[in-house]
Amino acid sequence: MKETKNTKVRAVEHVVRAQATSDGAGVQLLRTIGTPTLDHVDPFLLLDEFRSEDGADYVGGFPDHPHRGFETVTYMLAGRMRHRDHSGNEGVLRPGSVQWMTAGRGIVHSEMPEQEEGLMHGFQLWVNLPAELKLMEPRYQDIPPEEVPEVRAGQATVRIVAGTFAGVEGPVRGVVTKPTYLDVHLPRGARFEHELPADDAAFVYVYEGGLIAGEAVVPPNALGQLGPGERIDLEAGADARFLLISASPIGEPVARYGPFVMNTQAELAEAFADYQAGRLGVR
Ligand code: MN
């Protein structure tokens, strides 16, 4: 007999609709975290969705730019994107693949589309690093699509990028904030239940259809910030595709300026000076 668990369901406390913005060399984006409405959800600093069949929305890509002090996570659903950094690391992200890049002390890289037309669809998430790891050696986890497990649970189909779902562990390893990153397809009317660590900060991002969580409705291209509790219990109001993302908060001051996220203004100034002097990421 299944043990009865007296656990609290996490409510959707805030629904934040994506803001249309552009970044890089004119790439059109839908941003939910990293906006005046929602600066960050510790440890998450930014969440962008890019989705277009019109090359004009993405061909400019993201030419050479720096990062320091956090991790960038790119998850592709459609299209191909080439990344290349200052020390010669290079690779192509293709549909279903994931890049978990720990910028640490710094990298300078480009992220450029490998196509001029056709659907490009994916997400970039920024995850903070604690002070003691902000200047760590840069590190990549480049995960091909076949290494991202897909699990059926009830009516849900779940791709596990990071964390554990239904006893299956995702491929991302050794991230200090212990993230969960699930890509869930839930048909209309179906329910999705999952337990997350009670201390995690958690949200859902709906990229198709809609979710119902108690009194709250999360429409497409919106983020539902999840409150305290041990588990989530969601229903698909319409055939839904969404990300469920959580991780341990870091609880430190956030000082951010563009591609640099540190703890203090002085550290930001140092990052900027290092970049200007060509020292970023150089040993
Ligand atoms: Mn970048």
Helix and strand sequence: EEEEEEEEEEEEEEEEEEEEEEEEH
Envelope shape: globular
Amino-to-carboxy terminus distance: 58 Å
Unreliable stretches (pLDDT < 50, length at least 5) are none
Number of domains: 1
Computed Rg: 18 Å
Q: Total strand count, please?
A: 24
CATH homology-level superfamily: Jelly Rolls
**Percent range for helical residues?**
under 10%
Strand content: over 45%
Mean pLDDT: 95
Query: Major sheet: size, sense and barrel closure?
Result: 9 strands, antiparallel
Give the distinct bound molecules.
manganese (II) ion
**Discrete helix count:** 1
Quaternary organization = single chain
CATH architecture: Sandwich
Query: What's the CATH class label?
Result: Mainly Beta
Structural class: mainly beta
Per CATH, what is the topology?
A: Jelly Rolls
Q: What this model shows, in words?
A:
It is a single chain. The chain is mostly beta strands and 283 residues long. The protein has a single domain, classed as Jelly Rolls. Helix content is 4%, strand content 52%. Strands 1, 13, 14, 17, 18, 19, 20, 21 and 22 form a nine-stranded antiparallel beta sheet that branches. A seven-stranded antiparallel beta sheet has the order 2-3-4-11-6-9-12, with no helix packed on it. A hairpin with a 3-residue loop joins strand 2 and strand 3. It is globular. Manganese (II) ion (MN) binds next to strand 5 and strand 10.
Put the structure in a nutshell.
The chain is mostly beta strands and 283 residues long. The protein has 1 helix and 24 strands.
